Amino acid sequence: MASPLAFVFPGQGSQAVGMGRAVYAASARARAVFEEADRILGYTLSEICFSGPADKLDDTRVAQPAILTTSVALLEALAEDAATSGSRLSDGHEPRGVAALPDELRPSFVAGHSLGEFSALVAAGVLTFSDALRLVSERGRLAATKGARGAMAAVIGMSAADVDRVIAETVPQGSAVVANDNGPAQVTIAGDNESVAKVSEALTKSGARKVVPLRIAGPFHFPAMGAIGGDLASFMRTMKFRDPVVPVVANTSGVPHQSGALIPDALVRHLSQRVEWLRSVRFMAERGASTFVEIGAGQVVNGLVKRIADVKLINVSDPPSIREAVRALRARVTS
User: Fold this and answer.
1) Distance (Å, rounded) from C-alpha 329 to C-alpha 317?
2) Which member of 114, 137, 175, 200 is catalytic?
3) CATH number of 5-146+226-334
4) Would residue 221 show up in a list of annotated catalytic residues for this protein?
5) 113 has catalytic annotation
6) The one catalytic residue among 221, 257, 317, 321
7) Under CATH, which number does the domain 151-217 receive?
8) Helix (H, G, I), strand (E, B) or coil at 112
């Protein structure tokens, strides 16, 4: 019988000072993830996550590895808590991601919102944590140094189609776009600063309930950000992309990646194409995912999921929520 579980991971904007601190203190496996990140990056990412300052954590070059590391640390802590006391999870090398979970707690799908797709790739065994960390660190560096300049804003109370119409009526083609289709009445726009400001004003006049600027240094999922795609593609040629152990639902299509070999090209398109989160969640729910587990700082993604599908929502963000999640998941999959 297919698992009723889907694991989902948050993206940029979910970062907050203090993220990961409690699970670092409570879980040996989570602690190992943060220590590995500090070694690979050459600076104490853990200290920035735990103590700030906030402006440093919000820097794209830090926020991207911080979000990935926190999500992977929480997933490893979940596996540690779920393991039968005293048993080995493997013979020799410990598995990571969903492969480390007992069979009954493995999801049918994993997906990540925007940057969260990289966490999903680690969870599904496509990339090692060390490779994914180097990749998002380079992605953040390229975006900050060579990427498009601009802004992003969340739009509440309008569909993607309606926002597309307002954009077309307000600014020149390509200067602003719908970057994320997050739900029936929530989208994110991206573009150059002037265009995002004009579109935000027009959306408010056209009936949007709220338009909120995002804490992000550049416009992701915006055509001009594709300028760094060649550099990112070159960097990814140094890495091994494996076939996923569970389907990874892709942001750019809303359906699972077909193979590990095709994922690098999808990650290049990910820079400049729309995040199809509404389609992704509907795809998983229509194929039997009735419980969505958000693994990462905060509950941003579950907040989006609940507006799309009638499913049970579970959050994994600290030791108490990990314990409760294991209890609830075991009860749900065996009932």
Assistant:
1) 15
2) 114
3) 3.40.366.10
4) yes
5) no
6) 221
7) 3.30.70.250
8) strand
